[in-house]
Known about the structure:
The protein is 39% helix and 22% strand. It has helices at residues 3-15, 18-24, 29-43, 59-90, 99-104, 107-116, 199-206, 224-234, 247-250, 280-290, 301-304; strands at residues 48-50, 55-57, 93-97, 122-126, 143-146, 155-170, 180-182, 191-194, 217-221, 237-241, 254-260, 265-273. Strands 3, 4, 5, 6, 7, 10, 11 and 12 form an 8-stranded mixed beta sheet that branches. The longest helix is centred in the N-terminal third of the chain and has 32 residues, at 59-90.
Amino acid sequence: MNIKTLKIFSDLVANANFSKTAKQNNVSQSAISQKIRLLEDRLNVHLVEKKKKSFQLTEEGTVFYHHAKLILSEYEAMLEDLQNYDAKTLGGVSLLTNYWIGVYLLPHYVREYFKTFKNCALDINYGDFNGMQITNLDPRSDLIILEFPPQNEDLAVELFAKDEFVAVCSAQSELKSQALFPLENLASQPLIGFTKLHPLRTIFEQGLERQIMRPHYAMEFNQIDLIKQAVETHNGVAILPKSSIRPARESHIFHTLSLKDRHIPISLYFIYRKNRKMNRSLTHFIAILRGETVFQEEPSAKEESCLSENEIIF
């Protein structure tokens, strides 16, 4: 028996649905049934009475569920205490996000953070995923910043930034004299876009739901920088977040066009665990994301010197 099995059993009771529980725990429905059977064999009791359209707990199952919840609660409390102890020692922030958010949207917030916590760790890790793939917050991460908020009642989700899609072409393109880009032009223009499972592609294509035409991708990449290089080299068109084009630096390379008759927004969320004790640097960073002004006073020497050897990853 392990914590994962206890969590699956508790989720099954809470959901009263094998399919939903399997999806929530990233396992197959048959795996859920097998784990319950193995658990019953090990305990030598029947925990669940499964029927065609529903199931219910036996008396033994009710007792087991009660203690499983207590064990899971203590386990989460242990992780919380360990993380808080670590955080108090380090005084830093561990953040998980997508590459494009970290490169194009976070630098401003990072600079604000280091104005107060000059030497405290800010560890930023990247992955290509969205909130629909997140069922819980990794104990090693204080925050997640994503385009899609996860559906989990134990996590707090706050909107902190908005962006929008624009069409991007080479500064030498025949489109450089235009200000608007009709989306129906994608039928005749080679589209350089994101790979199929990239969250930005998902958002863009959801925004095209009522369009008759569907985009044809000439090239696909998983990073904005690669898409921009392809646009510059092959003179195609890309649909990118407006924040990813920096006019002051790239006006001689790219030309941006607003989408005609269609505004496709991009919402960014930060996610953290509810009812948790936060160290001072994490509280400050969240306040920065919210646009609040806090901690005007200088940090203590202890806060300024925390974990200066930790590398900040960008």
